[in-house]
Design goal:
The complex is a heterodimer of chains A (280) and B (183).
Chain A: H1 2-20, H2 25-31, H3 36-52, H4 59-81, H5 91-104, H6 106-113, H7 122-135, H8 139-163, H9 169-184, H10 188-197, H11 207-252, H12 258-279
Helix pairs in contact in A: 1-3, 2-3, 4-11, 5-6, 5-7, 6-7, 8-9, 8-11, 9-12, 10-12, 11-12
Chain B: H1 2-12, H2 16-38, H3 41-57, H4 69-90, H5 96-100, H6 117-124, H7 129-140, H8 145-152, H9 156-182
Helix pairs in contact in B: 1-2, 2-3, 2-4, 2-7, 3-4, 4-8, 6-9, 7-9, 8-9
Classes of the chains: A mainly alpha (280), B mainly alpha (183).
Chain lengths: 280, 183
């Protein structure tokens, strides 16, 4: 028992020399010639295992992880600054729902929302999405919507691969690409700059008016900043999860579906990276 | 160590830059530790991110008391890994041997000359949980014996003994693997 303890200490000291100080196995053995026979194979195994484990995370993953962490930090900062929720008008969404119910009938639209490519209700789903895009007034709202639609398309791609309906994967991947391209065309850089600069205020006439104006502008800027920060968090989440989901599919997909999946992965990685960069 | 203590204290006061520096310092090590424990890249990536989000959320609860920040971070990672392994045991999965070991192994080489991450992950699956933990923290995470002891809640002596038995077991498993390939 005592001998074991002594040997464990010697082994640990040699490991420190080998792995931390960069000495060779031979240098360690010279220091403990009486244990050399026992030490040598263990040190060689430890050195080889340690070398094999010196892997680096993929640069692409590191970049995405940094973005996501930054989003979390940003969100936490905003929540500290604005302790209460600022009400935001939701009329656009309400209008969409109202119109959709009137035009297509509530039950049909709700059922279509869950439909998948190939189902008879799927064209209704796509049409409803188009109506929502058209009726969404702001750029940030449209960008949020396109990101949500991209999320739907990824879910549909997964569904199609899992069900073996591979002939439709290409089309779903093209729709994904289209949504992401539209999202990135919405001048996200300009949005971020506007956020940084704050909203320009008109010249106030009275002191009270100036104070009220300033308060309104402040609230609006806070609301905008908070919404953009939320969007950033969503993008950060999708930037990690969409390529990961698609990669997982790629591993088990038949050869015929692989080119479309590879293109979808490349597009999602590049698009989210671009969008996050623009928002910064 | 002093720098790390200073950074951790600044991060506790809400200094984002300090937290970002801690993140950059420890990210790779945490990832290596997690991937060796879970053996799957996508899961390891998700979990590595979770470690830092959790660390940020609970950094106010970190107390120095001689335990370095890295050990605290690895403790978070370890808890996540334990939860993951517990959940994984409940559902049937493909074994690591089937899914990760490279198929182009070259049986003519010595154990110590040719090892890759998949072989090491696969081999550590044959070790006891404690042995595996020590190998992961020491060789993948790069922690000292004292830090490993802090993470695992054991004495330094116990960690050294575990480290010894883990390397012996690892070598045996790797040699067995080579023999079966040769045979």
């Amino acid at each position: 028992m005592k001998r074991d303890k002594e040997f464990s200490n010697i082994l640990d000291e040699c490991l420190e020399r080998l792995l931390v100080r960069g000495e060779t196995v031979e240098q360690c053995l010279e220091k403990y010639p009486e244990h050399a026979a026992e030490l040598e194979p263990l040190l060689k195994t430890a050195a080889a295992a340690s070398k094999a484990l010196a892997i680096q995370p993929a640069p692409e993953f590191k970049a995405r992880a940094r973005y996501e962490l930054r989003s979390v930090l940003e969100k936490a900062k905003l929540e500290k600054r604005v302790p209460f929720l600022i009400w935001q008008p939701r009329w656009a969404m309400a209008m969409v729902i109202f119109l959709a119910v009137v035009v297509a009938g509530g039950g049909t639209v709700v059922a279509a929302d869950d439909s998948m490519p190939g189902s008879p209700l799927y064209p209704v789903k796509l049409a409803t999405e188009q109506v929502r895009v058209t009726l969404t007034p702001s750029d940030i709202g449209k960008a949020e919507l396109y990101a949500a639609l991209a999320d739907r398309r990824v879910a549909e791609i997964a569904y199609l691969v899992n069900k073996g309906r591979l002939q439709r994967v290409e089309l779903a991947a093209q729709r994904l690409k289209k949504h992401l391209a539209k999202m990135n065309s919405l001048h996200l850089v300009a949005m971020a700059e506007k956020k940084a600069a704050g909203e320009p205020a008109r010249a106030p006439v009275l002191r009270e008016e100036a104070e009220a104006d300033s308060e309104m502008t402040g609230r609006h800027t806070h609301a905008q900043a908070k919404r953009q920060a939320r969007f950033r968090v969503v993008l950060g989440h999708y930037a990690v999860n969409h390529p990961a989901k698609l990669r997982a599919l790629l591993e088990r997909a038949p050869e015929s579906a692989k080119p479309a999946l590879q293109r979808a992965i490349a597009v999602s990685v590049a698009s989210y990276e671009q969008a996050l960069e623009d928002l910064d | 160590m002093q720098d790390e203590q200073d950074l951790a204290q600044r991060a506790q006061r809400g200094d984002k830059e300090a937290f970002a520096q801690l993140y950059e310092t420890h990210f790779d090590k945490i990832y290596r530790y997690v991937i060796l424990r879970v053996g799957k890249r996508a899961e390891a990536e998700d979990m590595t991110q979770q470690v830092f989000v959790k660390a940020y959320e609970s950094i106010s609860s970190f107390r120095w008391k001689g335990i370095p920040f890295s050990a605290w971070l690895f403790r978070i990672a370890r808890n996540l890994v334990i939860d993951y392994i517990r959940k994984e045991k409940k559902r049937p999965t493909v074994s690591f041997e089937e899914s990760l070991v490279a198929s182009d192994s070259n049986p003519g080489l010595e154990v110590e000359q040719k090892l890759d991450i998949e072989q090491v992950v696969s081999a550590t699956r044959r070790l006891t949980e404690a042995q595996r933990e020590v190998i992961s923290l020491r060789f993948a995470g790069g922690l000292s014996v004292a830090e490993v002891a802090g993470v695992m809640g054991k004495t330094a002596g116990a960690v050294k003994a575990l480290q010894h038995s883990a390397i012996v077991a690892l070598r045996k498993v790797l040699l067995m693997g080579e023999d079966s390939e040769k045979g």
